[in-house]
Fold this protein.
Amino acid sequence: MSEKHTLYKLIILYMLHKVDFPLTTSQISEFVLDQGYTTYFKLQEALAEMVRDELLIIESTHNRTLYHLTAEGEEIITLFEEQFSPEIKQDIDGYLKEKHYDLKEESGAKSTYRRNANDEYIVRCQIMENGVNLIDIKIMVPTETEAKAISINWIQKNQQLYTLLLAKLL
């Protein structure tokens, strides 16, 4: 494995080590690609290898993938954190500090759907914070198109909907 490929993996591990929530593929990609560390395809290859090697676990929904650091991944970054430059760590820390609220909000909202025995779709919409469900709603709809729309809209508008729901209930 090349030194650069190892660097990409350490960057990903360090990012996940520094936050207390999972990161999406797009959140990791935004940093790595905007900084010009590698290409999209090499980043995807590194992520897949890290999942295969059990450094990361994935949580997939219909519209995105969340990456969680495993105990093995935590051990690796602790042992090899000094392998990359303080400048790179500073770039990562700055990115995470600047985007912390947006990153956490985006990764805390989850939405999945499945077809039931009656050929209807159950959409599950959640907001998680620090491993605790703030809200967990299941909605039944007749078509997959509606289920997809609800799932996408929940990810995009969950804070507005949560606030509206609380206002109406309180």
